[in-house]
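re: that chain from earlier
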Amino acid sequence: MKIDIDKLIKILITGCLAIYLFFLVSTQVSHQFLHPRMDKYLVIAIVLLGILTITQLNKIFASQTSPRRYSLILFVLPLTVGFQTEPASLQSSIAQNRGVKVSQGTTVFSDSSLQTPSLDEQLASVNQYLNSNTQTQNIPAVPQQNKVSQYFDQPQVNTDGLLEITPSNYMNTMYSIFEDPEAKKGQRIKLSGFVMRADELTKEQFILSRLTITCCVADASLVGLVCEYPDADSVFPEEGWFEIEGTLTIDDVDTMPFPIIKIAQYKTIAQPAPSNQYVF
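^ sequence. v structure.
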């Protein structure tokens, strides 16, 4: 009985891949690349790879060995890189290279070529189609008052009247503010994030933002609020991390009414650990 090298290599590849995926999930390193809700699919992959590895063990020894396929080495290279390379989160400089653009949608700024129409614009397009198509004229129009935020828990104000925006309530709070900024006008807000700037803003203004992902880093976008402070261009350096507290006002940004935080106090904070830099 000889050891079938070809099958041994296959078993080592599937086994190491299962171990690597287990490492990513158990250490939460996977959250630097994937939304936490994708963890269950990684666990399924780990189980299947483990079963495949175990069921192939009895095939290592055979009277007749398979021809060696050196192309299997191509599968070893990614695993080697994965084990030896320190994962890094998506940096704000990548988003800066895409171009920063202030928008009235829930995504405050992102690649202008990837701008998504607002909910009202999408509903208007649907109603326009329904009205223009004779086969759909009897279908009632989609109500325009539908809000994305109705599907999320509403942000809670603490006993001091302060609305603290945290990673756990980040997106639903942003939806709530941008869909009805007048309702939050005058609200004291506490927010942390890193500094980004856009051409539409003045020297006293910047965007305090966080990176958010829906599925994986391929769809990562920057979401935040415009902040205003005297001499902000010198006080708040680009990509610096800050925690600010201020009052939400409504002002014009590039001739558009826009929610802006007038900063009352601030402090520099440390950059979060890579696995905690995203909000979901």
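The domain at 93-114+151-279 is CATH 2.40.50.200 (OB fold (Dihydrolipoamide Acetyltransferase, E2P)).
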